[in-house]
Write a structure and sequence with these properties.
By secondary structure, chain A is of the alpha/beta class. Helices cover 42% and strands 17% of the residues of chain A. Chain A has an 8-stranded mixed sheet, with helices on both faces. Chain B is elongated and about 80 Å long. Classes of the chains: A alpha/beta, B alpha+beta. The interface between A and B is medium-sized, with 18 and 14 residues.
């Protein structure tokens, strides 16, 4: 209780997103690891997300990370049903009782995040937004999503993107001034992804590993062309494919058609805890995504000592040094050539050396320190009155601007009504509790 | 104003005639914290004997008293302060609905069924919002036997629920999250039951009041554990 109150440089952060544990994915891991590292730095972190099945209410995770599973049902793709003002009371209650200073939202495709950020801005809190994906500009879904993003980012205090390509994409989609956007790449837990102690011999068979969701975005159609070709050219190459999705059927068909049952092993969905054990069975990691803002999968593979072959899309070229990755255009023949080049490069690869370099390059503690700088910068920004902020919304478009202004005004009125109905003094503040440093050791001693 | 009252009486006389019950009723009537403190300090000796501790806020009053000085029973009460504004609001809106229906009937020639429907709506509204008013909820802790949870209604009805001391594993303070708010509750984890027993079922007192009740419950259950290990 004492440490946080005394030090004004320590922040109290609320992470909001639809995507969190018990779901597994890039965004979820990012929020979890970032929160743990921020807790280690002495800040207070609280996460708010929607309820997952029976998992509803307050839960505590490692290190005293408090998670509010707000009982709003998800309706499509893990997103909460958008009710514009529905989340205002609960978000206000959480912000007041935890004495939050900064609200940090994740992922553009999360309705919970957008609504929570809007309400936080209405109530005058500083808001930071992290965008994890690249989106298009042309199709109907993207146009609407970009408009929503424009609304949220019109008044955001600071924004973070995971790569320079992602920054360009976000700035173009939302019209945000580039000075407000920071680039902080993701990282990988190198202690979990270590190379195998003894690897399968390269002379016998070369194993290429593919682990991804088998959907269109991840370039499964490319794989369907590439795998038979590579198997034809290199008789000593085997494939291991992990993951599940809509396009799995196509891979199975390809296997049948070219009689590659003994050369292509399909594992099905691989739980996150077992990803490492699958990766260390291989020499080369193949990533055929059609779009990727940043690719944590190739970081995990490089940390396990695999040479990566990937499509040159999005932020992928920014992730690994040139001697750890072979890039190709998202075209089957180019990818086959890249795999050939990778096989040729294999003898020069030392997995342990690769792992050590990755440990130097990518670290979640580093990400947390850089994010802390963003929070410091956000808190230094001035507090603006409603009227000044409304002018930013008007620039969003001829019709959209006026609509957004109306939404913000109505939101402001709802907030004032809520302040009368349930004054902020009635909401009690929660006392902080800090876990003792050696709490886990004590538990171990007691059980032994 | 109606909430203030005069203390212009001879103090010795008051001490002779005042009982624990009248002190309690005086404390309940006092709205302002300043006056509460002055009453408390005036009758401190009596109050300390009867009423061990008391906290008050706009909505609830917490009173902790020990019925018998030998500490056989420990009582904690959470009293709901009546607020007239809720009644005024509900009756005013019901009247407004009825008035609209009558206006429509007389001046715009709509059918009488509208008036009947509005009357029905009013009755349902009043029943829903003003039903079962709870006056007080109490916790009586008897260290050797168990804990009795009482709910006192405005109509005089009392509902009691007894939990034997052996069945209580632990009293816990929990945060409950609803789609619109988050509040603290005090619950008992009970042996052989998947559901916890809520101590204050209808009222939502603030955490500073719940903490005292929780500490008393913990002390009672810890004592029980110590005596049971001694007998073993």
């Amino acid at each position: 209780m004492g440490a946080n109150d005394d030090d004004p440089r320590k922040h109290r952060i609320l992470m909001v997103s639809d995507f969190f544990y018990p779901n597994f994915g890039g965004v979820e891991n990012h929020i979890y690891y970032l929160s743990q590292c921020l807790l280690n730095l002495g800040h207070k972190v609280v996460v708010a997300t929607h309820a997952y099945g029976n998992r509803s209410g307050v839960r505590y995770m490692t290190g005293g990370l408090k998670v509010y599973y707000v009982p709003w049902r998800p309706f499509v793709m893990q997103n909460t049903f958008p009710t514009i003002y529905g989340l205002l009371p609960i978000i206000r209650t959480i912000l007041i009782r935890e004495r939050i200073t900064v609200v940090h939202g994740h992922q553009a495709f999360s309705t919970f995040c957008h609504e929570a950020l809007m309400h936080a801005r209405t109530m005058g809190y500083k808001v930071v937004f992290t965008d994890h994906s690249l989106y298009g500009f042309a199709d109907v879904g993207s146009i609407h999503m970009n408009k929503v993003l424009q609304f949220t980012l019109a008044d955001v205090t600071q924004a973070i993107c995971v790569s320079h390509t992602s920054k360009e994409n976000t700035v173009l989609r939302s019209g945000l001034p580039p000075e407000k956007v920071f680039v902080i790449p993701n990282a990988v837990d190198t202690s979990m992804f270590t190379p195998a102690v003894d690897r399968p011999k390269r002379s016998e068979q070369i194993v290429i590993v593919v682990i991804s969701r088998l959907v269109y975005r991840k370039g499964v159609d490319l794989l369907v062309e590439v795998i038979p070709e590579v198997c034809r050219i290199h008789p000593n190459v085997r494939f291991i494919v992990g993951g599940d999705g809509a396009k799995r059927v196509r891979l199975e068909e390809m296997r049948e058609k070219h009689s590659l049952q003994d050369r292509v092993e399909m594992l099905g969905a691989v739980p996150h805890a077992q990803v490492r054990s699958v990766l260390i069975r291989g020499h080369i990691f193949l990533n055929s995504s059609l779009t990727e803002a940043f690719c944590i999968a190739i970081l995990e593979a490089a940390s396990c000592g695999l040479l990566t072959v990937s499509t040159r899309v999005g932020g992928v070229p920014e992730v690994l040094p040139d001697d750890m990755v072979v890039l190709a255009e998202p075209d089957p023949s180019d990818m086959v050539y890249a795999i050939k080049k990778a096989i040729y490069m294999l003898p020069k690869i030392d997995p342990q050396d690769m792992h050590n370099r990755m440990r130097e390059l990518y670290d979640w503690n580093d990400v947390a320190k850089r994010t802390e700088i963003v929070y410091d910068r956000a808190l230094k920004c001035s507090n603006q009155k409603l009227l000044e902020r409304l002018s930013r919304y008007l620039c969003c478009g001829a019709w959209a601007g006026k609509l957004f202004c109306l939404v913000m005004i109505v939101g402001y009125l709802f907030w004032q009504l809520l302040e009368l109905w349930q004054p902020a003094d009635d909401i009690e503040e929660v006392p902080d509790f800090t876990l003792p440093q050696n709490c886990d050791e004590e538990i171990l001693e007691n059980t032994q | 104003t109606s909430s203030k009252f005069c203390l212009k009486v001879d103090e010795r006389q008051i001490h002779k005639n005042l009982t624990g019950h009248s002190i309690r009723s005086i404390l309940k009537k006092v709205q302002s914290p300043l006056l509460f403190r002055s009453v408390f300090s005036t009758f401190k000796a009596e109050i300390i004997r009867m009423v061990e501790f008391s906290i008050s806020n706009a909505r609830y009053t917490y009173v902790h008293d020990q019925k018998y000085p030998s500490e056989n029973a420990d009582m904690h009460h959470i009293v709901l302060r009546r607020s007239g504004s809720k009644y005024v609001f509900v009756y005013a809106s019901a009247l407004f609905v009825l008035a609209c229906a009558i206006y429509l009937y007389f001046l715009e020639e709509k059918s009488t069924s509208l008036v009947y429907y509005s009357l029905l709506f009013d009755i349902i509204l009043v029943k829903l919002l003003l039903r079962k008013p709870v006056n007080k909820e109490s916790v009586v802790i008897m260290p050797a036997f168990g804990v009795q949870l009482e709910t006192h209604y405005m109509s005089g009805k009392v509902i009691r629920c007894f939990v034997p001391i052996d069945k209580i594993l632990k009293p816990v303070l929990l945060e409950c999250v609803t789609p619109v708010t988050c509040y603290w509750t005090l619950s008992l984890i009970v042996r052989d039951e998947s559901e916890m027993v809520l101590v204050f079922k209808n009222l939502r007192p603030p955490i500073k009041m719940l903490v005292h009740v929780w500490k008393a419950l913990c002390a009672a259950t810890d004592n029980k554990e110590e005596t049971s290990t001694h007998t073993k």
